[in-house]
Amino acid sequence: MKTPAFWYRPPGLASSLLAPLGALYGLAGRRRIAGTVPQRVAAPVVCVGNLVAGGAGKTPVGLALIAALHARGVPVHALTRGHGGREAGPLQVDPARHTAADVGDEALLLAGAAPCWVARDRVAGAQRAVAAGAGAIVMDDGFQNPALHKDLALIVADGAVGFGNGRLVPAGPLRERVADGLARADALVILGEDRNGLAALAGGRPVLKAWLEPDPAAAARLAGRDVLAFAGIGRPEKFFATLDALGARVVERAPFADHHPYRPAELAALIARAAATGALPVTTAKDAVRLPPELRGRVEVLPVAVRWEDEGALATLLSPVLLKGSSDGQAA
């Protein structure tokens, strides 16, 4: 889905006309959550979610949590719905066999860091992960899915755009009302500079500040180069701004809808346009797993990773969850 431009502007006519539909969407979501008793599994579940449709940085935060748990010796598995993929699951992702069309792009990224399970039925997916030896589960997205009990729920927000115009889909980017979502969350993660006063909305909950930092080697290769930048993520302009900041000269910006499946002819045309101007085609790691394999090596990829302002604050959140999971496992 391509993010409507009006979602991140003050409410106007288009947003106002769609507001009644947003109210119905929100009511349906509140009833679903209120009417569901979450099921527990025999491992702690850390949910990385957001309150808006489109990208807020969930998957990089999920990867950072996987790395933090690995550093503590925890056998962590990832769990995701597999948005954009055809497989309903539950199944374990095999990057050598599965494509983004099978399991979605987030699943392939997560599978590069930990065993990853795709499951539209999150409880069934978590149970399969536990049976396969998971000592903890990091769930990418699923915050609005009430079926699986969450031992730690983090809301990720982009500090640059916050919660947009404050209205619910389709009148705005919100999946649910901000107050409702934050009331169920254990902490708020703000990526980038907080330009929208998000920390003040946390209501006393911990606020973790973090930044997305480009891979140093890739950044060095791109600095000073002419590039044709393309991205099919929630906010492609965020990727373009990153390239500007690291000193690349962006001669063309080609935005696509989130999870866009690149066709061979389409990618070949982008590569040809870049070559005609002496530019280097460059995209995100999330886009890279959706590129046709035969052309993937002709595109530069700029990975990013999360840098925490205070890693101790993250450890403070994770420690009691892991201790609880350890004691529950012994009791079982």
Automatic annotation (TrEMBL):
Q: Which E.C. number(s) belong to this protein?
A: 2.7.1.130
Q: Pfam families of this UniProt entry?
A: LpxK (PF02606)
Keyword entries, A-Z: ATP-binding, Kinase, Lipid A biosynthesis, Lipid biosynthesis, Lipid metabolism, Nucleotide-binding, Transferase
| Residues that coordinate or bind ATP | 52-59
Domain of life assignment? Bacteria
Q: Does the keyword Nucleotide-binding apply?
A: yes
Gene Ontology cellular component list: plasma membrane
Q: Which reaction does it catalyse?
A: a lipid A disaccharide + ATP = a lipid IVA + ADP + H(+)
Keyword presence, Kinase: yes
As for family, the record states: Belongs to the LpxK family.
Query: What the protein does?
Result: Transfers the gamma-phosphate of ATP to the 4'-position of a tetraacyldisaccharide 1-phosphate intermediate (termed DS-1-P) to form tetraacyldisaccharide 1,4'-bis-phosphate (lipid IVA).
Q: Which HAMAP family match?
A: LpxK (MF_00409)
Q: What is this protein called?
A: Tetraacyldisaccharide 4'-kinase
Classification lineage: Bacteria, Pseudomonadati, Pseudomonadota, Alphaproteobacteria, Rhodospirillales
Q: Which gene encodes it?
A: lpxK
